[in-house]
Amino acid sequence: MTPPTVSEDGHIRLIRSVSFASWILSALLVYISSLLPLFDSSPRVVLNEHQSWITLAARPLLRWDSFHFAHIARSGHMYEYEWAFLPGPPLLMRGVARLLQILDQRRPFPAQAASWEYVLLGGTLAACFCGTASTLYYLTLHHFRSRSFSLLTSLLSLLPSSPGTLRLSGYSEPFFTYLSYKGMLYCTSSDWFLATWCFALAGLFRSNGVMLGGFIIWGLLIEPFLAKEKISASRLAYTIALTSAIFTPFIAHQFSAYQSFCVPAITPAPWCSYFPPAIYSYVQKEYWNVGFLRYWTMQQLPNFLICAPVLLLLLVYSTHYIHVAFFPRVRAFLSPPPRTKTSPFSPPDSSSDASATKSTLFFPPSLAPHAIHALLFTILILFNAHTQIILRLAASIPFTYWGAAWLLVKHPRWGRCWIVWSVVWGAVSLVLWATFLPPA
């Protein structure tokens, strides 16, 4: 008798229940840790001294980049360095903060900027509505055709390497991750228009949203090309139009900065004369010392060690996939068709069939754009950024959790090590984040 299988709806209910429980535990740990001495006492200076419930609720949320996002939400992009932060999070924080103030009947709708407390809580509430784990379940189900593997992947995603920024604050990560997953899910059904909308909206939250255009290019051009289909001029034009739409938010952000600093200014900013005149790259270099190998110093060695598990997982799984599943496909595409046909009386090659089954079980062909995206993005972060931010950004790459699930199934010992590290580091990172200690 075959045992009954749990339905997809049952899996989704389980994922949501575990997600809610982990959110409660994370929030409790952050609020308890916030009672410890802070490395930076700015939250106590910025927020209202009155011990109201809203101040007590918001105080643990004012950490690191939350300062920048909340200030932009209240006052707009006032300073040059703030243009490194895209407008998505401040817009959401401001909108939800206004709604909270309207619902608070004790306070009239204010004409001035929303309070810090409402802005911070607005970002947290907005982040709570991002159903990332459920979206990942359906994305995994499409690629791997396994409910159990999809459930495992989604549950592993509830152990992120930066739970504070992904689940408890109005950072860019929760919204960027959710919109990226939704766009990738629309790509699986060839709904390129809705996928473009999701990727373009993701571009309002992080600059690396421009890389998501690769999924549109892959689905409309590269995949048909590898299948030796003819690419029409209309399809090429459609791809260019959709990809341009994904770039639009980032370009518009740069243009807005150019209008503010270069057009009316008597003494234009130095970057105004650059080609292209992009404030983003200038600010990253001048204020955060971002650039090729600039982070590769002995002082930053601890940060490299902290994020090494995530970097190694992404590099190993992506390169292994490309070697096992993608390169053979490219070689088959480039090689001429065989001149001789196999005799119908010859026995099938069972070893070849077994090898093919093994390669497609954890390395389905549809994962190719995800593997390439994960590898390129990881290399970019490793050599050209503050490398520890991969702890925050890894969640936006589903390949992270597919790799973790692959480890757990095929290499159980390493998979258990990943889970232990995720639990321990996740808890430690929450305490560090709540007490204003690095890594940010």
Report what the structure shows:
The structure is a single chain. This protein has two domains: 39-128, no CATH class; 132-318 and 360-434, no CATH class. It is built from 20 helices and no strands. The protein has helices at residues 8-33, 42-46, 53-58, 65-75, 88-103, 116-128, 132-144, 147-156, 163-167, 173-188, 192-202, 213-226, 233-261, 279-288, 301-334, 350-362, 368-384, 390-393, 399-410, 412-434. 39% of the residues are buried. Mean pLDDT is 90; it is low at 342-357.
List keywords for this structure.
20 helices; mainly alpha; 440 residues; 2 domains; 0% strand
- Strand % is under 5%
Query: SSE string, helix = H, strand = E?
Result: HHHHHHHHHHHHHHHHHHHH
Largest sheet: none
Query: Which structural category fits the helices and strands?
Result: mainly alpha
The rounded Rg comes to 24 Å
End-to-end gap: 53 Å
Shape: globular
Pathway: Glycolipid biosynthesis; glycosylphosphatidylinositol-anchor biosynthesis
Protein name: GPI mannosyltransferase 2
GO cellular component, one term: mannosyltransferase complex
Function: Mannosyltransferase involved in glycosylphosphatidylinositol-anchor biosynthesis.
Describe, in short, the structure shown.
The longest helix has about 35 residues.
Topology:
Elements: H1 8-33, H2 42-46, H3 53-58, H4 65-75, H5 88-103, H6 116-128, H7 132-144, H8 147-156, H9 163-167, H10 173-188, H11 192-202, H12 213-226, H13 233-261, H14 279-288, H15 301-334, H16 350-362, H17 368-384, H18 390-393, H19 399-410, H20 412-434
